[in-house]
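Thread: Modeling a multi-component assembly for a lab meeting

Hi all, long-time lurker, first post. My supervisor asked me to bring a structural picture of a complex we are working on to next week's group meeting, and I have zero experience with this. I have the sequence lines for every component (508 residues in total). Could someone generate the structure of the whole assembly? Inputs are pasted exactly as I received them:
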Amino acid sequence: MLALIFVWPLAASVVASFQRDGAWTLANYETVRRLYAGDVAYTVGVAGAGTVLTFAAAIPACGWLRLRAFGPVEFLLKIPLFVPFVVVGHALRVFWSPYVPGFASSWAGIASALAWKHVGLAALLLLGAFRALDESYLEAARQLGAGPARLTRDILVPMAGPALAVSAILIFSSMLASFSIPLMMGRGGGPQMLMIDVYYRFGQHGDFPTASALGVVAYLLAMGAALVYIRRLTR
Amino acid sequence: MSDPAAGRGLWRLSARLAALAAAAFLILGPLASLGVWSLAERWTYPSPWPQRFGFRYWSRMLTSDFLQPLQTGIGIAVAVTLVGLLFAVPLGYALARLRFPGRTVVLLAFLLPQAFPQLPVFASATREFYRWGLAGTVPGVILVHLVGGLVFAVWTMTAVFRSIAPELEEAAHNLGASVTRTFLTVSLPLAVPGIVASALLVFLYSLDEFTGTLLVGSPFVTTLPVYMYTASVGYELQIASVTALVLMAPGAVLLLLLERVLRAEYLVFFGQV
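Re: Modeling a multi-component assembly
Sure thing. I ran the full set together rather than chain by chain. Output:
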C-alpha cells in the first residue's frame, strides 16, 4: 500500500521530470536552472539559517537542562512538537505582523518560524543524547571547577557529536522540504522556498514536468542528508 | 546574604526563573498572539494592541462552514487510525520480533516518506489519483494520510513490541502455545497502552495533515487545516486564529497525557529503529 501511494508517485515524478510532450529531454531542468536557481540557493540558505538558529537555542537549553533538571522549561520546549505546521506558520505570522509588518514573509521570518517548530524535536533528540552520557565525565570536570556553560561546550557537545550531527541533518532536510510554514507566512516579493515553487508550478501553471524537476532537485538535496542518516541508523 | 551557600542558591533560583521566563516568552508568545488575534474584532497597524475585543469570530465557530470541515477531518482521522493500526500492529510485531529476509528493506521503506520531500510526491500522487477517480474525494485523502500515518504507527508499534520482554512470550511458547496464540493472549494485551498511544499519534497526525489534503482533496474535501489556510489567504486572520486554536486543542491534550500515556520510548522513534 505504501508502495502504491508513495513509491509509485515518486517514481512517476522522476520519470516525468525527464519528459516533455512524450519525448525524453532535459528541458525541464533547463527551465529549473533558468527560473529557479536563485530559489534553490535561497531555500538552502533559509534551511541553513533555521538549523543554526534551532541549535543555537537548543544546545544551551538542553545542556543546562541536562545539568540542572528543571521540569517546567523542559515541558515548554516540547510544546512545539505538538503544534501542527500550519498553525506554527500562522502563529508566527500574526505574532510579527502587528509589530514588524513584512518580517514574517522575509527569509529571517521563515527561518525563525522553522526554528520555532523544530526546537521541540531538537530538544527531544539532544536531551536523549545528553542524558545517555556517563555522569562520571561530568563529575570529573565539575571537580576541576567547570560551570554549566563549560560543561556543555567541552563535554556534552563533543561527546554527543554523532547524535548532534544526525539530528542536525534530519532537521535541515525537513526545513528544505518545508511547505506549510512558508505558505502560511505569506508570499513576499523576491525568492521563494522550493516547495512553494513546486506547488505553484503544479497547481497554478499545471506544469507537472517542471514541478517534478524541481522536486527531483529537492530529493537530491534531501538524499544527501538522508544517506548519512540511514548509514548511521543501520550501523 | 553573607552566607555563600545561600547566595549561590539565590543565584540558581534567579537563573531558573530567567530561563523559565525566556522559554515561556519564546514558546508561548506566538501561541498567545493566536489567542489575542482570535478575540480582536478590530486591529489596525500601528496600534500595539487590538482596538476592539469580542467573541464575534468565536461565535462563527458554530456555523456550518466551520463545523463541516471539523466533521470531515474527524471522520477521515478515525478511518486513517483504524486502517493504519490494522496494518501496523501485525507489521510492528513482525519487525520487532521476527528476523525475516528483507526486514531492513521494509524498515527503510518506512523511513522514506519521513526523509523525502513529500510535496512533489503528493503532487504526483494527485495526478495518479485523477486517473483513478480518487482526487477530490474522501477516500483519496484517507489514502494520502495513510502514508504518513503508517510511518508513525509502524514505528511506534515496533518500539512498543520491543519494550515487551520476550521472556514472557517464551514462557507461553514453552507451555505449548502457538505463535498466533502467544501474540493474541500475551503480547497484544501487554501492548494495549502502546496501541492507544500509537492510535492517538496517528489520529492527531491525520487531523493536522495539510499538504496532502490540500493537493489531493482540493477542491471538494476541506479539513480544518485547509479551511484555516483559505481563511488566512483571504486575510481573515481572526478566523484562521480561531481555527488554529481549535486545531491545537487535541495536541495540547496529548501533551498533558504525555507522561502517562506516551512513554518516552514510544516517542523516541527517530533513529531508534
